[in-house]
Amino acid sequence: MPFLLFTISSIFYLSIIWNHACRNILLSAIRKLDTLLLQNQNINARRNEVAVPVIYDKLDILPIDNLESLKQFDQNLVKRDPENVDLQTQFRNKISSCGETEMKKAIIMTLPKILTNELGTKLVWMIKAEGKVPIQNFNFPEIIAIITIVEKFHSFPATFSDKYHCTKEDVKARIKLWLQKSGDRIRADLKKAEKNRDVAIN
Q1: Which residue from 190, 62, 64 is spatially nearest to 120, judged by alpha carbons?
Q2: Residue 10: count of CB within 10 angstroms of its CB
Q3: Taking burial as the number of CB atoms within 10 A of a residue's CB, which of 10, 20, 130, 174 is the most buried?
C-alpha cells in the first residue's frame, strides 16, 4: 500500500512539472507569435505610408544667371518673414539632400544648382577684380558651410563640414576654387558640344 501511494504521488508530482513546462513552452510560443505579428503590422504600415513630396517651389529661380538676382536671393536667405523663411528651409533641404560622400564632389554637385558657370565667371571669393564681385561675405556660402543636417529619426546640429570631416575654411576654399574654374567648365562644355555636333554630322 505505501508503495502504491508513493507511485501515485510521484505521478501527480510529475504531472505538475510536466504541465508547468508545457505552460512555459506555450507562453514562449505566444510571445514569439505576438512579436511576429507586430513586426508584420509595422512592415505593412510602412508599405502603406504615402511618401510626402519634397517641395522646392521657392527655388524656381535656381540656378541664377545674373548678379542682381543672386544678390536679392542671397539677402532673402536671412530675412525672417514667412515667405523667406520657407525659402531658407527649402534651400537648406536642397543642400542637405546631396548624397555625395566627399566634400569636393558635394561642392561640385551643389554649386551648379545655385548659379550658372556664366555667372561664376563674374564672381570672385575675396579680392575684388575689375568687372567681378567678391562673395566672401555673401550668405549662401556660409549656409553651405554650416548647414543643419536633419536625420530621418532625429535631428541634431551638424555642419556641412562635420558631415564631410573638414573645416568651414575647407568648404569655402573649395567654393573659391569652383568659381575660379567657371571659365574652364564653359570651355569644356563648348568643346564637348562641338565634338557631339561633329559626330552627328558624320
Answers
A1: 64
A2: 10
A3: 174
Residues sharing a CB contact under 8 Å with residue 159, sequence separation 6 or more, in sequence order: 145, 146, 147, 148, 149, 168
Stretch 37-50: mean pLDDT: 63
Of 129, 126, 130, the closest CA to residue 175 belongs to 126
Cβ burial of 185 (10 Å; 0-12, 13-18, 19+) is: middle
* Nearest Cα to Cα of residue 182 among 125, 99, 97, 100: 125
| Highest mean pLDDT of the ranges 11-20, 101-110, 157-166, 175-184 | 175-184
Nearest-angstrom CA–CA distance, 8 and 1: 11
Residue 143's φ and ψ, nearest 5 degrees, are -65, -40
Q: Where are the alpha helices (DSSP H) in the chain?
A: 2-48, 67-76, 82-96, 103-110, 117-120, 139-146, 160-163, 168-180, 182-201
DSSP secondary structure code for residue 20 in this structure: H
pLDDT tens per residue across span 3-30:
444 455 555 554 555 565 666 675 676 6
**Residue 66 grid cell:** 545674373
Per DSSP, the residues of 90-124 read HHHHHHHT---SSHHHHHHHHGGGTB-HHHHTTEE
The domain segmentation of the chain, as residue ranges, is 1-54, 58-201
Amino acid at 54: V
